[in-house]
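If your schedule permits, I should be very grateful for your opinion on a structural question. Thank you for your consideration; the sequence and its tokens are set out here:

===
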Amino acid sequence: CLAKCGYCDFHSIVADANLVGDYLTACKQEMQYYAGQFSDTRFTTVYIGGGTPTILNEDQLDQLITALRIHFRLEANAEITIEANPKTLTASKVQRLRDLGINRISLGVQAFQDRLLAALGRVHGVADIYGSIDAIQSGGITNFSLDLIYALPTQTVAMWEASLTAAVTLKPKHLSCYSLIIEEGTPFFQLRAIGKLQLSDQDGEAQMFDLTRQYLIEAGYDHYEISNYAQSGYESKHNTIYWKNQPCLGLGSGAHGFWGTRRYANSRDIHTYVRNWQANTPALEWQEELTRDQLMDETMMVGFRLLQGVSMALFKQRFGVAITDVYEKELCHVMERNLVEEVNGYLRLTKTGLYLGNLVFSAFIR
């Protein structure tokens, strides 16, 4: 990234030019390592995630995306997303990305008030957001998503509504609206510990969540996942793979992958990652074989994030047993409390359950 934000617990660093070159070489070596194992696999989505991949110059992005296409078979209509932050896009860079097959951009906007952006540690201002949207549209990519965060320090409901209004005016195909979570080890965690971070209370956060649902649904967006809204047909295909607990190959430092019954994480230390691949050795931080029970539990936990819920038929097809036979006690517990309901063969969160999702998710981890 260009800078590290005060709330960010994601794996990212501020890197120098030499390290970027070594890192790209290591990524290509990892692709080559897996290519033979996946020669018969057709991938339906690619997600080039953060930090901020668009701080790479056009030639570096070309290297990365061309290597992916050389080593893996992508479906002709694959959804190929790249994350970006304002101040890292130009029309020529977007056009180059489009020519390389990128057909979706996820832009980290977060807020439409300069004061809030500065408090978050973002390096962009509101003017940069509009400049990035101009670059995206001029560069010829029409499918873009905006990330926003609510329940920020000193943020009022009126400020959040203003951000939603500004976002919708830009006509994104997709919006991700997350509540601020204070993670241990971040600067915000330290500030809260010493009483220097004024946060929204739970009532204020719930009010902002309510406003988000009402405003975006009225604006024509489908609420399809707890934090995600899309125009019809523009739901994130890649993230839906996670919410349906389906396989995904993770490449790069800090990436997580899940294939068959194996789940793994690559080293979060980028120097370790580079050194390992210089020796042509996988840079794994950990890996585990999941049991059938774990796979079932995780399928329930992540599936409830989708507003449609968990398909009872697909669960039985995948695991050979009915959900109601496996989770009779757990389902009674959440349904008696009006947190989960059955609708058209799906088990899904009720409106009450949307506010208490964590209680539901944890109920299915046996």
